């Protein structure tokens, strides 16, 4: 079977190996689509946290069940499924409290263990979610959208409140749209004018702020001087992460979705004066996946606009570097493994 491995920063290799066998308690899956995300791009560039080489990347996955034993969930061969790519231990304090997304022993497919850039993979049945009614491309979008859904659930958004999202990449765009669905007034923030234009054109975002042009004044003007009651960082950029409280209202929440490898510094008087609620949002839970599946089934999310680039797996290595090139205006790239 074919697979693609990132052997070291800046180097992929397309290889061939024996087809994997199904283990007890697992399902043998045929990979249909793999979404490319910031984690994959950072791993290729050599600046991804919690990472070791060589590694088969890929955790935004759509698959078809090839073999599976009898199971209580009624999954069977031929079913299309989403894969929740977080392998949790089930016994640590986080897992016991239902926060499997931040398990102390978590292993994420494509990061801590090999992921889905391969024709077949054998995975535990309990991380598979039936996705009846969705096509393979939509299924591959479930995981990145679940990241945003988890962040929004953490923030406990209220209809009508002004929220700001820093970073109009794939995760940020998902947060923007799902916040709209929740009834929030959304402010999109980015340094890239093309991304802001895309947020307006494809997702109907009315309030756009170019961060290079006095963003605090812009957010203040939009909110009648109040600033945003919830600010989400979806950049992972240290400078952006440290600027987030500047756009936040007194009594507001700051939700860190993006991940930086370095240290962050905040002015304590500034965040203390606002009685800032500072929270991180990591991965997602089964509830977030189920919410996104229903959202996609209901046609509330513009999947066709979200996926901007498609590539066959044979061509992925040659095309991969272009996915991080701003001139290519990539929002979401999808690899076809069929």
Description:
There is one protein chain. It contains twelve helices and 17 strands. The two termini are 12 Å apart. By secondary structure, the protein is an alpha/beta fold. The protein has helices at residues 38-45, 93-96, 136-140, 142-155, 170-181, 193-203, 215-222, 238-243, 268-273, 286-297, 303-306, 316-319, and strands spanning 2-8, 11-16, 26-36, 60-68, 80-83, 86-87, 107-108, 120-124, 128-130, 162-166, 185-190, 207-210, 228-233, 248-256, 277-280, 307-312, 332-336. α4 (142-155) crosses α10 (286-297). Strands 3, 4, 5, 8, 9, 16 and 17 form a seven-stranded mixed sheet that branches. A six-stranded parallel sheet has the order 12-11-10-13-14-15, with helices on both faces. A two-stranded antiparallel ribbon has the order 1-2.
Comma- or semicolon-separated keywords:
28% strand, seven-stranded mixed β-sheet, 338 residues, alpha/beta, 12 helices, 17 strands
């Amino acid at each position: 079977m074919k697979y693609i491995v990132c052997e070291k920063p800046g180097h992929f290799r397309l290889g061939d190996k024996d087809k994997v066998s199904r283990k007890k308690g697992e399902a043998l899956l045929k990979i249909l689509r793999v979404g490319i995300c910031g984690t994959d791009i950072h791993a290729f560039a050599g600046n991804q946290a919690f990472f070791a080489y060589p590694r088969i990347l890929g955790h935004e996955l759509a698959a078809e069940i090839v073999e599976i034993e009898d199971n209580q969930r009624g999954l069977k061969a031929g079913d299309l499924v989403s894969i929740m790519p977080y392998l949790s231990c089930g016994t640590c304090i986080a897992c016991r409290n239902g926060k499997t997304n931040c398990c102390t022993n978590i292993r994420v497919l494509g990061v801590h263990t090999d992921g889905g850039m391969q024709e077949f993979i054998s995975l535990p049945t309990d991380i598979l979610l039936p996705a009846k009614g969705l096509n393979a491309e939509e299924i591959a979008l479930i995981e990145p959208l679940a990241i945003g859904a988890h962040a929004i659930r953490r923030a406990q958004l209220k209809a009508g409140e002004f929220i700001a999202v820093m970073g109009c990449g794939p995760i940020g765009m998902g947060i923007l749209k799902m916040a709209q669905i929740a009834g929030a007034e959304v402010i999109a923030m980015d340094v890239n004018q093309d991304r802001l234009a895309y947020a307006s054109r494809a997702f109907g975002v009315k309030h756009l702020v170019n961060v290079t042009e006095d963003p605090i004044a812009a957010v203040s003007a939009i909110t009648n001087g109040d600033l945003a009651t919830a600010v989400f960082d979806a950049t992972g950029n240290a400078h952006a992460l440290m600027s987030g409280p500047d756009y936040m209202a007194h009594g507001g929440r700051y939700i860190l979705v993006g991940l930086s490898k370095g240290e962050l510094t905040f002015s304590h008087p500034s965040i203390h004066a606002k009685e800032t609620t500072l929270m991180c949002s990591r991965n997602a839970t089964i509830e977030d996946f189920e919410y996104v599946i229903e959202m996609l089934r209901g046609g509330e999310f513009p999947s066709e606009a979200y996926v901007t680039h498609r590539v066959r797996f044979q061509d992925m290595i040659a095309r991969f570097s272009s996915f991080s090139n701003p001139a290519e205006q990539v929002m979401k790239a999808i690899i076809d493994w069929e």
